[in-house]
Amino acid sequence: MFLLIFCLVCSQGSRVVVSARTYADFTPQATFDIKKCDLHKLEEGPPVQAVLTREEGLQYYRTMQIMRRMELKADQLYKQKIIRGFCHLYDGQEACAVGIEAGINLTDHLITAYRAHGYTLTRGGTVREIMAELTGRRGGIAKGKGGSMHMYAKNFYGGNGIVGAQGQIFETYNMASLWKLPCIFICENNRYGMGTSVERAAASTDYYKRGDFIPGLRVDGMDILCVREATKFAADHCRSGKGPIIMELQTYRYHGHSMSDPGISYRTREEIQEVRSKSDPISMLKDRMLNNNMASVEELKEIDVEVRKEIEDAAQFATTDPEPPLEDLCNHIFHNEPPLEVRGTNPWVKLKSVS
Prior knowledge:
Blueprint: E1 2-3, E2 29-33, E3 38-40, E4 49-53, H1 54-79, H2 94-103, H3 117-122, H4 127-134, H5 169-178, E5 183-189, E6 192-193, E7 196-197, H6 198-201, E8 216-220, H7 224-239, E9 245-250, H8 269-279, H9 281-291, H10 297-320, E10 341-343, E11 350-352
Parallel strand pairs: 1-5, 5-9, 8-9
Antiparallel strand pairs: 2-4, 3-8, 6-7, 10-11
Helix pairs in contact: 1-2, 1-9, 1-10, 2-7, 4-10
C-alpha cells in the first residue's frame, strides 16, 4: 500500500498521603463523534463515530508529543547552526502521520515528501537516529548522509528532496486507476505551498477531487480519530480490489515552509495562534481523554516529562556522536552489490564503495 501518502512538598516536616488512582478508576474506552468527511465518487464514507481505548489514547498522545518536542528541538539546534541545510518541520501536522499509521499496517509501504521526520518515527526510526541524521552524525538513520529530507526505514521509502518528485501525479493517477492498484494518495493540505496560500495558488482547492475518476475523501487532518477512521476506510477500499483512492487531510503547519522561512510574512501571528488555540491535534486528544476520565492530568504530565527527557538525551547524542568518516562517503550506493570504484572530486581520485 503506497501512501503519498509528581511531587507534593509540605512544610514543618508533615507528611502528605496521596491516594493513587488505579487502572480500574479510568474509563477503558469511549466513543466520540467525529467530523463527517466530504466525498467524491463515493456513496458512503468513513463512520462519523470512533471508538478510542485508553491504551490507544495514551499511545497516540505520547507519539504526537515526541514529534512535537523533537521538531521544537530541531528548531533550536538549527538556530544554533548545529543542524545545517534544508530542514522542514512537522509540528502542527502530527495527527496526520500518527492517524495514518493507526489505520494501516507496518507491512504496508509508505512514501512521503520532504517533511519526513514524523513518518520516520512512526515507521520505526528512533528519536536518536532522527536527531543524529539531522546533525549529520554516524548514528543517524541514513548514517549521517541523508539529512532532513532523506530518511528511510523498513517499508518506508523516505522523504524526497524535490518538490513533486513523488510522481508525475496525473499520469500516476491514470495508471493506478487503469491497473486498479491498491494505492492511497494522500495530500496533507497545510494551507500553504511554501509562502503562497492555496486560495491564491489554485482555482479549485478541492484537492480530494483532483483524481477526477478516482474516489476521494476530504478529512479533518487535525483530528487523529478522523484521520485514523478515514485511513481505515481507504485501506479497506484498496484491499477489496476497488483500486486507488485519494485523501485530502486539512491540516496546518506552525513553522514556516522550511527553517529559512519565518512563516509570518504571508500569514499573521494571530492566524497561527488561533489554530493552536482551537484546533491543535495534541490538545484535542488531551481534552477528550481528560473530559471522559480516560487519563489524569498527572499521568499526562508524567508522559510529557518522559518525552522531554528522551528528546534531550537524543539531542545530546546527536551533538556528540562523530561524523561519518570520509571513507564511508561512497558506501551504500547499491544494496547487496559488489564494491565498485567511484570517481572522486577529480578524475584521478578513485573511491571504493561498500554495499
